[in-house]
Amino acid sequence: MAWMAWTVPTAIFFGVIACLLITFTILAIKYPETPRVGILRIETTRGDRLFITLLGSAFINLIWLGLEVAPQPYALLACLVYAVAVFRWV
Length: 90
Known about the structure:
Elements: H1 8-30, E1 36-37, E2 43-44, H2 46-67, H3 73-89
Antiparallel strand pairs: 1-2
């Protein structure tokens, strides 16, 4: 008996997360960086900003579902805008 419904969207979601983690690990090894201070006034690295982006995107999607603002795929656009903002200013 399966504990989770492994659908194509679920597999794509976990595949994208895995690819992001691998890509950011390779970038950290190949191009070491120094932490920077953004609008949150804390030092962040690429990995920190990725974590903040993923966490914020989860909340955006939950709020989107709860408020039934528009069809769910439009939440992806909101998450992409949020991701760009985080990587630019945080």
